[in-house]
Amino acid sequence: MYDIAIIGGGPAGLSAAITARARNKEVLIISNPAEENPLAASKLVDNYPGMPGATGLHLLTTMHAQAHRAGTKFLQARAISVVPMSGGEPLQTSFSVTTSSDYVEARSLIIACGAASGGKPLKGEREYLGRGVSYCATCDGMLYRSSTVLIAGLSHEAADEADFMAELGATVHYVAEDLPPSLDARVQRHRGRLLAIEGDSLGVTHARIAERPAESPRGPELENKTTASLRDEPKELELAVHGVFILRPGIALTTLLPSLATDGGYLKVDAQMRTNLEGVFAAGDCTGRPLQVAKAVGEGQVAVLSAVEYLRA
Ligand SMILES: Cc1cc2nc3c(=O)[nH]c(=O)nc-3n(C[C@H](O)[C@H](O)[C@H](O)COP(=O)(O)OP(=O)(O)OC[C@H]3O[C@@H](n4cnc5c(N)ncnc54)[C@H](O)[C@@H]3O)c2cc1C
What we know:
The chain has helices at about 10-20, 55-70, 135-140, 160-170, 225-230, 255, 295-310; strands at about 1-5, 25-30, 75, 80-85, 90-100, 105-110, 135, 150-155, 170-175, 190-200, 205-210, 235-240, 245, 260-265, 265, 280. It is globular and about 55 Å long. It folds into 2 domains: about 1-120 and about 250-310, FAD/NAD(P)-binding domain; about 135-245, FAD/NAD(P)-binding domain, CATH 3.50.50. The chain is built from 7 helices and 16 strands. The protein is about 25% helix and about 30% strand. By secondary structure, the protein is α/β, with parallel strands linked by helices. A hairpin with a 3-residue loop joins strand 5 (about 90-100) and strand 6.
């Protein structure tokens, strides 16, 4: 049982963890690696005080190392759902977090999962969620062990999940723009993306994908650019599947904890970074504009001080 579980290991989550350790709290960050954080793509972050000219990745790894040195625990995983639990004497609330690799319990929760954690839902995703659509093969894979499934590879863990499904005996289609070099030989690879999920009253029956040729033509000697790009045109393809695993780096906020109040797609918080749920705080891009590192770091600190106050009370 952690004092504080933080979902998201960007600037907001890391800042919250550093202050949590300074307040002697047991804290866990659940997140993907720094290299997968959107900020890691930035070649220059020039407006964060004290570190002019830093790359986004340098900023993230420096913050990560500081949080690690302070004693923060890290779980490299995706938080999939949060269930508030009540019990004990006197009555206490804790939170059970299901992740892609483990279950975690904490007495309070900070959501710091950035602005685009869940991505835009695909056609059919919401409709068939729980009826063929899942966000975690480790959790739901057994239900599909002798079926045909599609894995939408949108995060680093997707390849492992595809291998896991192949080991269970499922027929596996793996769809991703960038195919990983090492995939179980039984997995059928499709370079492209998932477009839509279709089905009937019982659940998923088909997935529509846009598939590109396995290898794009490369090199100046290979025709002109127009012919090359024509060759790379995606083709729409329908695959008969019973299960679709959509493996993004994050989960839509309303799926993670459905009773959280949102406003315009962002989490609703007060000045102390409290959400509408007792014991749940939020910080960073997920609470709204400006979407900037300095704001995320500041909010992370306010959120954790509010969590510490909540735990003390
Ligand atoms: C290319 C680029 C350049 C930028 N340049 C600047 C700049 O120059 N200056 C500036 O101030 N800001 C810049 N930003 C914005 C800055 O990156 C964000 O404001 C900042 O990173 C927000 O921090 P955060 O901690 O709130 O969220 P994030 O940094 O987005 O971190 C959240 C992390 O949580 C993970 N996550 C989400 N859901 C889950 C889940 N369910 N389970 C586990 N993990 C989850 C996400 O994948 C992500 O890694 C830039 C952003 C980009 C994309």
